[in-house]
Design brief:
The strands form three sheets. The chain has a four-stranded mixed beta sheet. Strands 5-6 form a two-stranded antiparallel ribbon. Strands 7-8 form a two-stranded antiparallel sheet. Helices cover about 45% and strands about 15% of the residues. Strand 1 and strand 2 form a beta hairpin. The chain contains seven helices and eight strands; from the N terminus they run E-E-E-H-H-E-H-E-E-H-H-E-E-H-H. It is an alpha+beta fold. It has two domains: about 80 residues, TTHA1013/TTHA0281-like (2-Layer Sandwich); about 160 residues, Up-down Bundle (Four Helix Bundle (Hemerythrin (Met), subunit A)).
């Protein structure tokens, strides 16, 4: 099973994004370590997305990018070469379905946590401010990102406090504009390029990174009580 990888790095670390499995990623201080992490990542992703996995993974780096952003803290700006091409309706439909499934599963994970404001995580500064530490802070952060991501491709949605409702509104507005499958390129105020394809992949990735953090935190506080809809592997929530 081939895993096509886009590498983004700075002088402190590397983050690897899977093009073959949109949203799957690893990061580490060194490339070899990040590559080693991909097998359990793809295994859990395939279980989550109901994709047959044959147990043999071939990692192939197809694109590299350097940045001044804090990739060691999961900041990113890279756009895949494949994300600059027009979208086929079938491919769009599959990605949209995964983005909505991800929102539903994020909600289910959050709902399974008995006390939303309890945490065992210390405070830590990130490139966007203090990291979310409680389940409620993580959930609210992901909901706010709905509006931000859609805005990058010219779609203005409400600030919904519900992850799925925000995405449904965004897709409704997008699909009623027409011509969205042309996958136009938008450039934000910092010079970062966005397309619909990139936005869809970023939703899957952003949900996944915060769902991992939420599941890891909650599973330690309430063992055997937290559901695992993303099918994260033990290695992932203990690392």
């Amino acid at each position: 099973m081939e895993n096509k990888i886009v590498q983004e790095s700075n002088d402190k670390g590397v983050i690897l994004f899977s093009e073959s499995f949109p949203g799957a990623f690893t990061r580490a201080a060194e490339l070899d370590e990040a590559l080693r992490k991909f097998e359990p990542e793809i295994q859990s992703y395939c279980k989550w997305a109901d994709i047959p996995y044959d147990g043999k993974l071939e990692n192939v780096i197809i694109q590299t990018s350097t940045t001044n952003l804090a990739v060691e803290d999961a900041d990113t700006e890279v756009i895949f070469h494949s994300e600059l091409k027009p979208l086929q309706r079938g491919a769009y439909g599959k990605l949209k379905s995964l983005v909505l499934k991800s929102a539903e599963d994020f909600q289910s994970l959050y709902d399974s946590i008995p006390y939303k404001d309890e945490t065992n995580l210390p405070e830590r500064a990130t490139f966007y401010g203090k990291r979310p530490r409680t389940a409620r802070e993580m959930y609210d952060h992901v909901c706010r990102v709905n509006k931000y991501y859609f805005a990058q491709i010219g779609i203005d949605i409400n600030d919904y406090p519900d992850i799925l409702a925000g995405r449904l509104q965004g897709f409704w507005i997008l699909e009623n504009k027409g011509g969205f499958l042309t996958n136009n390129v938008f450039t934000d105020s910092s010079g970062e390029q966005w397309t619909l394809s990139k936005m869809l992949r970023r939703f899957l990735w952003h949900d996944r990174i915060h769902a991992k953090a939420m599941y890891r935190m909650a599973a330690k506080i309430w063992p055997n009580r937290i559901i695992n809809p993303f099918r994260f592997a033990v290695e992932q929530h203990q690392s």
